[in-house]
Amino acid sequence: MADVLELRQYTLRPGRRDDLIDLFDREFVETQEAVGAQVLGQFRDLDDENRFVWLRGFADMPARGKALAEFYGGPVWAAHRDSANDTMIDSDDVLLLCPVTDFTLSGRTRGGDTTLVTVTLYHLPSGGEDAFLDFFADAVRPLLTETGAPPLAVLRTLRAENNFPALPVREDANVVAWVGSFRGPDDLAEHVRLLGRETRWTHDTLPELTRQLGRPPEQLQLAPTSRSLIR
Question: Where does the NIPSNAP domain start and stop, copy by copy (predicted)?
Fold first, then answer.
């Protein structure tokens, strides 16, 4: 189980996303896992054709520092870094997170049916995350589950010193995130429809959720690549 996670969003050069995905899925999955990183999910952002999103995990912060030093100082990255970097405009939009609930992908295999994965980011004022997580567990999660979107994972910002400074992480962020999985866009639309018809959501939960946020939430709608574990 990963107790440290990175949500990485890359802005790519126009038309280069499939080039990076082909390279990534071929060269950067098993080779990262061999040094202690867990490649959990790789995705095409459905709202931005030039954005690649992926999720990486580590057992803890010391394991993160060791794994990143070994991978980025090793022969595989040396052989392919120029090709990878040539596809990118920006790779610094990185959130350092930790799981709030059990987040295990044991028994899953890479590949399989194509699905739709969502990552919803709630941006919170400093100090508001504990109360928000209690509210999420008591009021939000039950409604999500009842309307067809049980969270696969709930994550929060991890306050820890970046122990691999060569790869920046966002220090301005304070988020709670939940990851959802749907069979496709129709299932997501049905979830949104059912949630919108719930008076508990529209009259009570949504206004309180909005009140607690520092700014409007973001939702990433993501298509897993052929080798993504999360799907």
Answer: 6-100
